[in-house]
Design goal:
A hairpin with a 4-residue loop joins strand 2 and strand 3. The protein folds into 2 domains: 131 residues, ornithine cyclodeaminase, domain 1 (2-Layer Sandwich); 180 residues, Rossmann fold (3-Layer(aba) Sandwich), CATH 3.40.50.720. The strands form 3 sheets. The protein has an 8-stranded parallel β-sheet with strand order 9-8-7-10-12-16-14-15. Strands 2-3-4-5-6-1-17 form a 7-stranded mixed β-sheet. The chain is 35% helix and 23% strand. The chain is globular. Helix 2 packs across helix 4 and helix 4 packs across helix 5. The chain binds nicotinamide-adenine-dinucleotide. The site of nicotinamide-adenine-dinucleotide has 28 residues, from helix 4 and strand 11.
Amino acid sequence: MKAKPMSLKPSPMAMVPFISVDNMMKLVNRVGVADMIAGIAAEIEADFKRWPEFDKTPRVPAHSDEGVIELMPTSDGVTYGFKYVNGHPANMARGYQTVTAFGLLARVDTGYPIMLSEMTVLTALRTAATSVVAAKYLAPQGAKTMALIGNGAQCEFQSLAFHKVLGIDTVQLYDIDPAATAKAAKNLADTGLTVVPCTSAQAAVTGADIITTCTADKQYATILTDNMVGAGQHINAIGGDCPGKTELHRDILLRSDIFVEYPPQTRIEGEIQQLDPDHPVTELWTVITGQNQGRRDSRQITLFDSVGFATEDFSALRYVHGLLQDHGTFEDLDMIADPDDPRDLFGMVQRAKGA
Ligand code: NAD
């Protein structure tokens, strides 16, 4: 079924709704973090179900020694979207975010933008939402405990997503920086989760049904070694998302059934960059549509090799767009030149001189 054109059209003045960080935080707090992640997860799952409708391409990166800046475009033929995002692991030491982002939606029929939004907060929500969509099909039944290694910006969003959508009741936290673990434990107090700070990655994964790795380091890191992963565990690996930036020992990959978003991108950026280019992987959308099986049995090790794909940002932007009319959490941005006579762009500039 073709998607309908987005209803929030540019006004006659061609103003574009803009969601600032301030307005995004207002929106998230009105809806509630966990409810918003659940809403975005539903949108992401629905879009995975209509995967063939999307234009897909690996994201376009600009690498440097310090990090990467990427553009992530997609379209369903009716609406076009893109995200600008960076990944700079050394930023934290400078007092900056590792990941920042903004994104845009536009109508395909006119090419006019219909929304511009901050996406640093929204990326954390959509990454957590994608993780739970995958885990719904891959995690062991009745999972209650999750290890979270890397307690930075993504950590609490991941924790709340798994609590809300999958019924996880305990998170075992570990970070090489105890201050990060203390921050996450404080933020997660009073959420209904039992929070267990751990002093090693080994302690964090012990007894966990799900292991989420969300560390940031621009190297082939080994956050998990083979002996740390047992039969039946589900690994939600989100920090290995760039060439030369991985988190898992290769031997874990060889023991796991691996699920990915979009193979042409994941083979470049994901954990599977460590494997042969034809190593078998399963596309998540085919599990969601029932064409392939997710978890088969209770002893299987499942790995969601998450890198983040453009359709997930598109889904998140559409979800936010759908809330704007009710919540009014946007301001109009004068970003499209709109002369009365479309051919008289020059005249419009001249008249502005006199005004
Ligand atoms: P962040 O910098 O805020 O936090 C990363 C944390 O990892 C820090 O607290 C750091 O101390 C910790 N860490 C680093 N090395 C570690 C190690 N060896 N063991 C334990 N902890 C370690 O970053 P973030 O915004 O939380 O992002 C985390 C990772 O997820 C990044 O690599 C980012 O690129 C990635 N990411 C992926 C997606 C996706 O869709 N897959 C989306 C967003 C972010």
